Amino acid sequence: MNAAPDDVIIVGGGHNGLVAAAYLARAGRRVTVLEARGALGGAVAGDRIFSGVDARLSRFSYLVSLLPQTIVDELGLDIELRSRPVRSYTPVGDGGVLVSRDAAEVSVLDERLHAFATVLEPTLTQPLPRAADLRARLDPELWVALVERPIGSLIESSTPDDAVRGALLTDALIGTFSYAHDPSLRQNRCFLYHVIGNGTGEWRVPVGGMGAVADKLVRAATRAGASLETHAPVTAIEPSETGSTTVRLADGQARSADHVLVNCGPAVLDRLVGTPSPPPVGSQLKINMLLRRLPRLRSRLDPEIGFAGTLHLGQGYARLQQAYEVATAGRIPDPLPCEVYCHTLTDRSILGPELRDRGYHTLTLFGLHTPIDLFRADPDGTRELALQAALRALQDALAEPLEDCLAVDGSGQPCLEVMTPLDIEAELNMPGGHIFHGDLDWPWLPDDLRPTSPAERWGVATRYPGILWCGSGARRGGAVSGLGGHNAAMAILEAG
């Protein structure tokens, strides 16, 4: 039996789907969100992941930069994002490179990037600008170096320091299997998204954890009148050249709507419409830890300073290239280039009162150059290899064994969770375990493209009538931004 038609069906209850639902329901549209899992929020959801331990962590995401204040204000989201006192620390020998939040430019590139971001960031919640219009407003040399040539040349000309070069390059590699001089420029696009958030590129800590962001979005969508359904996996989508689109669910229901918004990866949409495509290549390792106390650093820097920002480990410029070559040859780089940060040095609220009183802390480790294909033949064995390679990178920076500091769960097991690209693929239905759903796009229109519909103007058009992107598959997708959801909603409202 078919249900009455909706105005909009949103497939996937992640943060972008919730943003779209809130905007559209507030505008009076009948909106239903269909989420396959038992909880909303997708990669942004928070949970007590260690048995018997009162600590609420995000298993998949960690910091916020790209979420525009415009979305926060328009949806009335009571979200607090705190600045970290330290930007980054890179151990080098017995010392290292420490960058405070208010430090002057780390490299001559910083000021130029800030000017670039100031122009570009406000356009993210507007119809797509044209490349030529942006070029006319921006530093022409930086445009060429960032948009037309591999970013390696820009980084190398900006500083001679290997550690500073490496810290810059990591912004081009997070979640993307690439290298400094990759002619595809996928690394350039990844870098751009990491440095334009709110015009500053600052990555801030969500108070209450990422789960708090998800909770506030659920409240906003519910308050607006959207229907949010969990345990509702979609098995097929049937586009129509004329009339509404049909969505089929695993329980046999068929729903129809004037518009279907897809908050899942392009490879998922292709499967749902019956034209399967190869998955993208996810390339990251996420390790969540709970510690009884922060470990001492080999450099003797106060751990509350060293772990307060982004701790870069094995991420020198030369080492990142070596690690890419090792991974390309089919092996886990060891030690693994990774970065670590401590949420609880900025926000203690994700811990229960007893853990706060006892001085516990969380650590989040994000490893690079771990493409999904390395894990397919032996998922468990390779997960262990990747874990040990990541822990070796961390241990190299410590003056004491990490295991002496790890907390244990209710069963006496170390509070340590490892998520490989295969695990992310399985848990979140992200093909290839790619956290951006695929290579990122430039957040503007090519000069030779003339949009013919609101969906094209907002960068959310698919090749199927009546179906729009509303997640990381949108032209301005990737990371925790809400942009895909906002822009899909704006396209529908503009269409009338």
What does the secondary structure layout of this molecule look like, with pairings?
Elements: E1 6-11, H1 15-26, E2 31-34, E3 46-47, E4 57-58, H2 69-74, E5 81-82, E6 86-92, E7 95-100, H3 109-120, H4 131-137, H5 140-148, H6 151-158, H7 162-173, H8 186-195, E8 205-206, H9 210-224, E9 227-229, E10 234-238, E11 245-249, E12 254-262, H10 266-272, E13 283-291, H11 303-306, E14 310-313, H12 317-328, E15 338-341, H13 353-357, E16 361-371, H14 379-395, E17 416-419, H15 421-428, H16 454-457, E18 467-469, H17 483-495
Parallel strand pairs: 1-2, 1-12, 2-9, 6-14, 12-18
Antiparallel strand pairs: 3-4, 5-8, 6-7, 10-11, 11-12, 13-16, 13-17, 14-15, 15-16
Helix pairs in contact: 1-9, 1-17, 6-7, 7-8, 7-12
Number of helices: 17
Question: Main sheet, how many strands, which sense, barrel?
Answer: 7 strands, mixed
Query: Which segments are poorly predicted (pLDDT under 50) over 5 or more consecutive residues?
Result: none
Average pLDDT for all residues: 94
What form results from the Cα inertia axes? globular
CATH class membership of the largest domain:
Alpha Beta
* Strand element count: 18
Classification by helices and strands: alpha/beta
CATH topology name of the largest domain, in short, is Polyamine Oxidase, Chain A, domain 2
Instruction: Tell me the strand percentage band.
Output: 15-25%
Name its key features.
FAD/NAD(P)-binding domain; alpha/beta; 3 domains; 496 residues; single chain; seven-stranded mixed β-sheet; 17 helices
